[in-house]
Amino acid sequence: MADKSFPNPHEIEAIPGTEGWERMYPYHYLFTTKDKEREAYENNTFWFNDALHYPEPMYPFDIIWDEAWFLALSQFNTRIFMIPPVYGVDHRIINGNVYIAPVPVTDPEEVQKRVPLFMERAGFYFENWNKLHDNWEKKMKGIISDLETLQIPTLPAMEDISVVKNGLGTSSGYELIKNYDKLIDLGIRCWQYHFEFLNLGYASYVIFVDFCTKAFPDIPLQKITQMVAGIDVILYRPDEELKKLAKLAVEFNLASQIGNDTKDVKDVIASLQGSENGKKWITAWEQAKNPWFNISTGTGWYHQDISWNDNLNIPLSSIRIYMEKVKAGISIDRPMEAVQEERKRLIHEYRGLLKTDDDRKTFDQLHGTAELVFPYVENHMFYVEHWFHSVFWNKMREVAAIMTEHKFLKGSEDIWFLSRSEIKEALWDLVTAWATGTKGYGPLHWPEEIAWRKGVYQKFKEHRPLPAYGTPPEVIAEPFTIVLWGVTNESMAAWAKLKEIGDPDKVNEIEGFAGSPGVVEGIARVCRSVEDIGQLKEGEILVAPTTSPSWAPVFQKIKGVITDVGGIMSHAAIVCREYGMPAVVGTGQATAIIKSGMKIKLNGDTGRIYIER
Amino acid sequence: MEKRSDYVLWFEECDLGSIPSVGGKNASLGELLKAQIPVPPGFAITTNAYRLFLEQGGIRKEIYKILENVKADDMDSGEASSKAIRALIEKTPVSDDLQDYIGEFYRRLSKRCNVPAVPAAVRSSATAEDLPGASFAGQQDTFLWIRGMDGILTHVKKCWSSLFTSRAIYYRAKMGFPHEKVEISVGVQKMANAWTAGVMFTLNPATGDRSTIAIDANWGFGESVVSGECTPDNFIINKITDEVIKKTVSHKTILFTRDPVSHSVIKQTVPAERADIQCVVDKDAIELAKIGKRIEKHYGKAMDIEWAIDKDTPGQAKIMILQSRPETVWSDKKVAPIMATRSSALEHICAGLVAGRKLTH
Question: pTM (2 decimals)?
Fold first, then answer.
């Protein structure tokens, strides 16, 4: 690979009509040539598009999670666990797309100095993993509970008499500002906890992967994951709840009340109220909703990723599918014992192929640790991206409703075009005007600004971001970069190759990672976002920037998945394996090359995609 | 009069203990049968038979006399001796006793196969072959598609005489290996009418990975794969999960098959419509790999296996194993630890982080 395989990030082509876009995002996310040192650093760094988390351009508000993990991941690497060869992961934004870069520790002496510090600090976490992890769960449940009970007060024309009689001494306006701050703080804190275990978790996983691929160069990555993956993972629990409800509905003979997909959930509940069994079923349904229906239909990273609780027809529709299967006598239970047995067998067989006691000892050490940490790697997503985020977005909508009422916004969904600090400022404007008995300035400023931002955002959406900028490094040590984003020799070489070809209409073969085994042929359907999934037809192959477990309804229809970005541990790969569906992930630019309607063949065993032209 | 088992043995009667009398190849076919591996039926003509032939034909002395002229540093002397000895062996008639033994077994083999004068592969099976440090592989001949008693006898003698190719003579002379010590057995085996054939390793020969099985396959007889005359289709199969993890379908140019008129083996161009299609379906490749695993288990070591898929069984593929021997390249390698041993997983994690992942340019 040549030294300069990717463009200079300072020579970015501006998209006409978006001039001034920079003010939509935090200023420190911008590439700059104002300072020679910063310019040189930016030039010599490899920036790759984080399309795994952000298949779409960033909304000014939604970038909050990017800011949150920019800080949290980095601090655990750099300042808390003192990971010897790496500092944090740096972030930039170009035309609404986030680019990230791991920051190496370049001084070998500094690396060595950090080694004993890392051993002590990481050592403490590994030694006390279970105890600390229990505590983590308590902390997470605590802040989710704080979030759920957080009040977003509306502003009354006159404060209640209790404010006077209780000698409260503060107003609803003050409470609104305070609780908005608290809402943001809970979000940032949730993401602090998110990374408490994850950096070490990925590091343990990476070393086990390294060992296995050295011992068995041909071992598919999914087999390595299978050897450490948990069986009873929280992320499957929402689906398990649906299965339970389906079985209960069949047992109680409620099929006619539940009806088919044309019957709205409200009508279904009304019908069920008519019988004792129906009422019992409603109780079970209500119990399942919290927390298990706080599962996002997207990745949870975007405000538009609604949860099952936001649209109860989604889980209801899946329950109907399961009911059909139960009635037909088909088992819908996950074959837990078989999965458990297969996992044991894989471990036993691979271990058995090692030649020496030393190798077996190393295998046991690394496997033991990977197995210890892996449940966290799999489970944290439910707490953070699904449960917390789902509740959080709706709290923000409550803030938006107040701003809409006061004409700061034309509609609640406009709030996502303001950054979190702009909202804070606008709330001050709004609350002060309410307190003063005047009109706020916001209605004169924000609706117009938002209209312009919407136009810019639309142009960003129509523009395809480049996979990377800057100079690829020789070594990558940052565990997240390796595992999650799949930045390895192979993917970088493949991306560079695609770039060389230039004309996407001439590419007949695309390479990615074998995410989930199997081979399928079929018609491609490109879905750039969750909104497009309605276009999917039975038996098509989904081509997406990235997918997630909670594109749940989709998986009943399609027969294969291809993604642009993501390693073997991306949300997409994990779920496809569970669904037994072939997947090729981390292809770089599949959505740019493949067009809906094309006949393609995808091989989840080899990671190759063939396009019939 | 000696027993017939001194001269001819069914493969079922052979095992690794009978290498001195039936040679490595025949013995390994017996071992495969013991492990319930499908092997085309056949029999071994023992080294005793070879010895008896030399005695009854009265040519032993003459052979060793010719060999006295061979000089270890002179290739040409070996060449001339080879020609003379091979001609001598091939023109000397096989005694009636021996003809009876071989003939009786050939008839019984034909009967077992339900084919009059069953087409057979006649192969030499040297006692020193395939033994560690004395690889004579490929130095003895194999004759395919031989039918009828005359043909069998002619080619058995050709196998015997193959002990005296100029290369074999020269090699033994150079290594100081006494010519009298080397003996030869011959195998007569029902010809597998291969639709597809090739080789299989119970490890990946490219990487040494013991968790995979590598299969090379081409249309027709396996000779095109063994000789390297054709780029075969390649399958890498996960031994633990029985899944095809990598597959390369090659452009296959030539194949070996039987000429329907002359019944001899001919080399021909692969018909265009078959040149680029997969010559073994995944399902059969996986079946084959499963057999490979059983063979490996039986021997307790990585194996190098020749196989064929028979076309005499219509409708379903009938997999046959023709040969198997221990893999030598990776198996003989010194074992280096996969990672330097460390006192804890954390030490490994730290060392791994410091080393990082190299991105080769």
Answer: 0.79
